[in-house]
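We were asked to recover a plausible sequence for a given structure. The inputs and outputs are reproduced exactly as logged, with field labels preserved.

PROBLEM: sequence recovery
POSITIONS: 267
GIVEN STRUCTURE:
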């Protein structure tokens, strides 16, 4: 919802239409919640094996699969229809694509290939595009830059998390890179590759005229710091260092989005 809101603000050429923003966030929330619920339905058997997830409603038996499926289908469909009627068809289509790519591609691929993280980063990056189009922004290079920022940001974030919970993922039978990587070096270097790639990509909004120079400088500082924390993981892939990458990622994204919003406001 935060990324959709930021995308909406950045894509609004003639000022923010507050009611339209509210409609966008309601529809986005419904689709996001439905997507999460569908994921938990499909993975309830694996979740029961993992310490981190075994107390979720389905593996713990607090909610039946039938009730969960009815809930997930209802709110997902409601969210897409709501966006189509209250916002526009393009934003509704992007929301449906987010749902489909997550549930039909990312979720099942987690059982078969470690490339699932790359696939999962696509639906994770689409909400900012949906926010942009909801405000009337056109699909093009500017919003594609926002998409790639979100896409690349997620990868060190999830690789660090996968390393921290690698034993849990192994118990659950998930095909994560961290499970296959005994010493963590491949995981660390892949995380660093994406973090370093994010440095120039994070500057693109200014080059495409979405933000100004304040954002450019701030994004450069934040992205270099994020890459620096990730680089430390390559010399020793330990759980404390992985936690530092994870927490750096949690700080990085909202800070970057705030910079985008404030710089556009100044401009």
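RECOVERED SEQUENCE:
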């Amino acid at each position: 919802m935060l990324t959709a809101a930021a995308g909406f603000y950045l894509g609004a050429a003639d000022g923010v239409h507050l009611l339209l923003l509210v409609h966008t966030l309601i529809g986005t929330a419904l689709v996001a919640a439905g997507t999460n619920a569908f994921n938990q339905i499909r993975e309830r058997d694996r979740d029961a094996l993992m310490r981190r997830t075994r107390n979720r409603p389905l593996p713990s038996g607090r909610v039946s699969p039938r009730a969960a499926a009815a809930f997930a289908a209802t709110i997902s469909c409601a969210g897409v229809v709501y966006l189509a009627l209250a916002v526009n068809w393009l934003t509704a289509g992007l929301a449906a694509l987010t749902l489909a790519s997550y549930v039909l591609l990312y979720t099942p691929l987690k059982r078969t290939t470690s490339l699932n993280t790359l696939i999962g980063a696509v639906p994770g990056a689409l909400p900012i595009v949906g926010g942009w189009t909801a405000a009337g922004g056109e699909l093009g290079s500017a919003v594609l830059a926002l998409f790639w920022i979100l896409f690349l940001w997620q990868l060190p974030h999830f690789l660090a998390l996968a390393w921290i919970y690698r034993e849990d993922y192994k118990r659950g039978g998930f095909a994560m890179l961290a499970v296959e990587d005994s010493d963590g070096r491949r995981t660390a270097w892949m995380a660093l590759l994406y973090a370093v790639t994010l440095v120039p990509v994070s500057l693109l909004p200014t080059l495409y005229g979405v933000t100004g120079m304040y954002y450019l400088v701030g994004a450069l500082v934040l992205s270099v710091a994020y890459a620096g924390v990730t680089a430390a993981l390559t010399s020793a892939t330990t759980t404390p260092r992985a936690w530092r990458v994870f927490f750096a990622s949690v700080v990085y994204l909202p800070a970057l989005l705030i910079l985008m919003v404030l710089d556009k406001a100044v401009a």
